């Protein structure tokens, strides 16, 4: 019966264990990322631990946040009774023990292995019979390969005498005798195409080139530059290229042998992205990547990421939205939806359309990628997004808009007679607590399935909220809420979130 009286210490222990697990997971994930960059494969047990740790951290975070909300309610006389404290304390202890077990299981060494490259070599392809008269040449080359003091071997002769055939037989025997860990054969013509040769070698070895190779071209262009201002400018230009190879090459080609003022001008263009030619090329590449995505679910999910208008996107918010929009077929539980969300995030990361967020539980989308997502969403889904970063909202969504996002726009008043019958999603993020919502605001937008109001104050929620008979997800984040009784009229609600909100009084029912 000690649980009600150890309530605080149980939660402190859970918080400490969750932090330990988060740090261990972050360190292991960094090692995994490094191993993957080297072309190594990750042991299944490591991937499984990372997934389990991620879920455990998220569940613990949600549980702790719930306890924080309980603390706030104490200020208005709504502290948990002894039974509730007993149950919460016992659950916190159980979660802490489970996390401690994960921490102890998190020491993986090694975490990866280098895959063996399987090469299928058909001896018939190499016409061994044609080499019978050249056995001496073959023996000389093979002897040279076995000599540790030699690193280059040349075979010369006029066209048609059998140099390529000899090389193929050497290739086959080198593999059969296991003279080297890897054996690669690449055709090189009189005018070598270095990029193609590198690519073919990489394909055989199972490797891919990172963005750094494109940055190397940018650096190569700078090597002859005498202007000492160029290196720092070039670094900023490279960052503005968003890690997009085509954009890096386009910009590098344009700036080759140019003076510093040209680099500064290009940096300015990239900062505001007003260079139509560059934008068209990048948009074309990104839209091509979007079109190559495997299926409508991942495409819709990507467009949703862009619609939020945020650089760092909370994965938890994405989960709430996709459940409200019924984005996934044949999925009915939160756990199934969460697994699907993380799977789609991995798919988009592999396409460089998303990257890791600044902290755990977030993903990032570059401004350039987001702009492309918004263009596609406005065309395919009748989506509307207001100007970001505190800019004044220049126009209001028209009546055909289906998905509406107003992230931190400068809005003085919300319209009362607004008609938008096709709208299914409405996101409004603000820091202006005084921004009010007219009582009949929802009367003309009755088909909403997802509503997220962040950073607002409500004496009482609009009575027209009851018109939203199809509402599945309602998020009231960082809000001050006096009266929320009307939420009881939302019979189709699946997800209700009050994250970081202050509620003065809970309804009786």
Automatic annotation (TrEMBL):
Statement: the UniProt record of this protein carries the keyword Manganese: no
Residue stretches in coiled coil: none
Pfam families xref list: NB-ARC
Keywords linked to the UniProt accession: Plant defense
Domain NB-ARC, first and last residues per copy: 139-210
InterPro entries referenced in this protein's UniProt entry, alphabetically: LRR_dom_sf (IPR032675), NB-ARC (IPR002182), P-loop_NTPase (IPR027417), Plant_NBS-LRR (IPR050905)
PANTHER family in UniProt: AAA+ ATPASE DOMAIN-CONTAINING PROTEIN, NB-ARC DOMAIN-CONTAINING PROTEIN-RELATED
Family as reported in the entry's similarity comment: Belongs to the disease resistance NB-LRR family.
Name listed for the protein in its UniProt record: NB-ARC domain-containing protein
């Amino acid at each position: 019966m000690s649980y009600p009286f150890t309530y605080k210490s149980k939660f402190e222990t859970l918080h400490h264990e969750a932090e330990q697990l988060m740090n261990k997971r972050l360190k292991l994930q960094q090692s995994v990322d490094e191993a993957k960059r080297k072309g190594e494969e990750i042991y299944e047990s490591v991937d499984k631990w990372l997934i389990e740790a991620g879920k455990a951290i998220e569940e613990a975070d949600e549980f702790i946040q719930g306890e924080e909300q309980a603390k706030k309610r104490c200020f208005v006389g709504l502290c948990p009774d002894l039974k509730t404290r007993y149950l919460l304390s016992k659950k916190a202890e159980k979660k802490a023990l489970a996390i401690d077990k994960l921490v102890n299981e998190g020491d993986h060494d090694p975490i990866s292995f280098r895959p063996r490259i399987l090469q299928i070599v058909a001896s018939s392809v190499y016409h061994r019979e044609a080499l019978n008269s050249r056995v001496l040449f073959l023996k000389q080359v093979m002897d040279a390969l076995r000599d540790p003091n030699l690193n280059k071997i040349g075979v010369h002769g006029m066209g048609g005498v059998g140099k390529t055939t000899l090389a193929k037989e050497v290739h086959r025997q080198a593999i059969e005798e296991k003279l080297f860990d890897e054996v690669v054969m690449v055709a090189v013509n009189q005018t070598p195409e270095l990029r193609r040769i590198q690519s073919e070698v990489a394909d055989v070895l199972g490797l891919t080139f990172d963005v750094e190779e494109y940055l190397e071209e940018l650096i190569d262009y700078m090597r002859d530059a005498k202007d000492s201002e160029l290196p720092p400018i070039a670094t900023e230009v490279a960052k503005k290229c968003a890690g997009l190879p085509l954009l890096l090459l386009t910009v590098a080609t344009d700036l080759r042998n140019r003076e510093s003022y040209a680099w500064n001008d290009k940096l300015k263009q990239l900062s505001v992205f007003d260079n139509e030619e560059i934008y068209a090329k990048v948009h074309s590449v990104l839209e091509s990547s979007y079109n190559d995505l495997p299926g409508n679910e991942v495409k819709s999910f990507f467009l949703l990421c862009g619609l939020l208008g945020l650089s760092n996107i909370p994965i938890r918010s994405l989960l709430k939205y996709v459940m409200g929009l019924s984005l996934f077929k044949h999925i009915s539980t939160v756990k199934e939806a969460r697994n699907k969300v993380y799977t789609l995030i991995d798919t988009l990361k592999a396409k460089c359309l998303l990257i890791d967020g600044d902290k755990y539980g977030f993903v990032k989308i570059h401004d350039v990628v987001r702009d492309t997502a918004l263009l596609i969403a406005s065309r395919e889904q009748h989506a509307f997004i207001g100007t970001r970063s505190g800019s004044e909202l220049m126009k209001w969504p028209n009546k055909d808009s289906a998905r509406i996002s107003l992230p931190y726009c400068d809005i003085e008043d919300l319209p009362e007679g607004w008609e938008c019958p096709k709208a299914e999603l409405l996101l409004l993020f603000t820091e202006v607590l005084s921004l009010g919502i007219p009582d009949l605001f929802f009367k003309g937008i009755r088909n909403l399935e997802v509503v997220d109001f962040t950073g607002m104050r409500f004496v009482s929620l609009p009575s027209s909220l009851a018109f939203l008979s199809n509402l599945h997800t309602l998020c009231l984040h960082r809000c001050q809420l006096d009266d929320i009784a009307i939420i009881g009229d939302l019979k189709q609600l699946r997800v209700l979130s009050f994250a970081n909100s202050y509620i003065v009084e809970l309804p009786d029912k």
